[in-house]
Amino acid sequence: MDLISLLPELLKGFTHFTPGNAVMIGVGAVLIYLAIAKEYEPVLLLPIGFGCILANIPLAGMTAAEGMMGVLYRAGISSELFPLLIFIGVGAMIDFSPLLAQPRMVLLGAAGQFGIFGTLILAILLGFPLNQAASIGVIGAIDGPTSIFVATKLAPELLAPIAVAAYSYMSLIPIIQPPLMKLLTTKKERMIRMEYAPRPISQRTLVVFPIAITVVVGLLVPEATPLISMLMLGNLLKVSGVVDRLNKAAQNEIINIATLFLGLVVGATMTASAFLNWDTGKIMLLGLLAFALDTVAGLLFGKLMSFLSGGKINPLIGAAGISAFPMAGRLAARVAQDEDFENFILMHAMGANTAGQLGSVMAGGILLAIVSHLV
């Protein structure tokens, strides 16, 4: 058999290569560029981009049921394992002391979920069925694991655009939120100084908190139990003070490995046939709208709290009521310091930010409960 007769076999990848594959490989390359050159959420956008490239190489077989990505999808996405492992690591990183010292920040965490439900209604009006609309709305929480967890249960066919939207907008928080902050607050409001006299939080309280939250949220919203329990388990590892190795493993090896495989598998779902359609564009726009509405609702509620307190609360902390921890809290504090370098509202913003983390999990559980009941 000569070389010429072998050419069709050697070039079969090119013969099955479509313009759609080329576009999606370009999308994967853009995600990798944003991860490396712009450092936009690199730990996830980089593996997502590479997985996207792999998914669009014809006949490679990696995304087939018996291929590596197919096996990882069943093991970590269908089983919901990867998002839950990531939540253990997130919980191990969170310090709930600012929230426990300022319980009223729970209100801002609740206000920061408004966009989820507003976008759900709009998505239904645009023709999406309830299960898909609920999954799209959760993008507004800017909480990747929660978005993936809800989408896997309600609309697995939309997993790729929902995951990409959630993590992309998370990386764009420093670009999207500041204009909204400055539009909805005055310079005088942004310069409000908030006293922080932290109440001492005992270790007993810190240990009881994750256990109590797991039980209460689990009883109120059973569908949220997997997410809240893993988040609280990670936090319990941190505050117990007796399992330092497990705490460090949760914050490093466990979350890093889960994030790597999650990113690859999400990227591997970004095939041309599944991604290049009008619905993807709608999902990206609706996700951006949900994010904006969550930020706006938090800021407006922050302004209300500022008014009711006689100007003692800086409304910027309302923008931290979304779930993107710790970026949203740090950004709110930075915007305040842009107006007054000696204005330190970081601990207040972190209280709202951790409340937003809890709020997004509960919102996701509520949506799962509603959709499961109605569908």
Strand percentage lies at under 5%
Instruction: Report the average pLDDT across residues.
Output: 89
Number of strands: 0
Overall number of domains: 1
Question: How would you classify the helix and strand content by structural class?
Answer: mainly alpha
Rg to the nearest angstrom?
A: 22 Å
N- to C-terminal distance: 59 Å
- Spell out the helices and strands N to C: HHHHHHHHHHHHHHHHHHHHH
Quickly count the helices.
Answer: 21
Q: Any low-confidence stretches, pLDDT <50, length ≥5?
A: none
Tell me the major beta sheet: none
Determine the fraction of residues in helical runs and give it as a percent range: over 70%
Structural shape? globular
Lay out the secondary structure.
Blueprint: H1 3-10, H2 12-15, H3 19-36, H4 42-55, H5 68-78, H6 81-93, H7 97-101, H8 105-111, H9 114-125, H10 130-137, H11 144-154, H12 159-171, H13 173-184, H14 187-190, H15 203-220, H16 225-240, H17 244-268, H18 272-275, H19 278-308, H20 327-339, H21 346-374
Helix pairs in contact: 3-4, 4-17, 5-17, 6-11, 6-16, 6-17, 8-19, 8-21, 9-10, 9-19, 10-11, 11-12, 11-21, 12-19, 13-19, 13-20, 15-16, 16-17, 20-21
What would your notes on this structure say?
The protein has 375 residues and is mainly α. The chain has one domain. It is built from 21 helices and no strands. It is globular, with a radius of gyration of 22 Å.
